[in-house]
Amino acid sequence: MPNTVCTVRDGGSEHIESAELCRWAREALEDKKGQDLVLLDVRDVSSVTDYFLIATGTSAPHIRALVEDIEVSLKREGARRFGHSGTPESGWIVLDYVDVVIHVFSPEARAYYDLEKLWSDAVVMT
C-alpha cells in the first residue's frame, strides 16, 4: 500500500501515513476480536477518502468496545479523528480520520449496507 499522508498528529506538526493508521486500526480491531475485517483502497473510485476499513461487531457492547479501542489506540499514536457518526445500538459507527474511514457494523447492518458491493470497483487490500 502506498504511504499517502493522512491525518495530522495532535498539535498539527507531524503527519501520519495512511498505511500506518490502517495498520494501527486493524490491530485494535483484531485485539478486540472484530470480525470479517476488510480494507478497501478507494483512491481510484472516490475523491472523499483513500481507504475504508470495515469490520463487524457481534453486538452493541462489542461494537462499542471495538470503537473505543480504535479511538484509544489511534489517539495514543497521535491521530486526530475528524468525525464520528452512529451509535452501537444503530448497528453502524463511522470514524472519519480523513484519508481513512473506519466502519464498524453489526452483522445485520453490514449485510444491509453491503459496502463491499457498493464499492466493488475498489481494490481489496490484504
Topology readout:
Elements: E1 5-8, E2 15-17, H1 18-31, E3 35-41, E4 51-56, H2 60-76, E5 83-87, E6 92-96, E7 100-105, H3 107-113, H4 115-118, E8 123-125
Parallel strand pairs: 4-7
Antiparallel strand pairs: 1-2, 3-4, 3-8, 5-6, 6-7
What key phrases describe this protein's structure?
126 residues, alpha+beta, Beta Polymerase, domain 2, six-stranded mixed sheet, two-stranded antiparallel ribbon
Count of distinct strands:
8
Which CATH-level-2 architecture? 2-Layer Sandwich
The radius of gyration is 14 Å
Distance between the termini: 9 Å
Any idea of the CATH class?
Alpha Beta
What name does the CATH topology carry?
A: Beta Polymerase, domain 2
Helix share bin: 25-40%
Low-confidence stretches: 1-10
Count the domains. 1
Q: What is the percentage of strand-forming residues? A: 25-35%
Mind explaining what this structure looks like?
- The chain is α+β, with helices and mostly antiparallel strands and 126 residues long.
- It has a single domain, classed as Beta Polymerase, domain 2.
- It is 33% helix and 31% strand.
- The chain has a 6-stranded mixed sheet. A two-stranded antiparallel ribbon has the order 1-2.
In short:
This protein is of the alpha+beta class and about 130 residues long. It is built from four helices and eight strands; from the N terminus they run E-E-H-E-E-H-E-E-E-H-H-E.
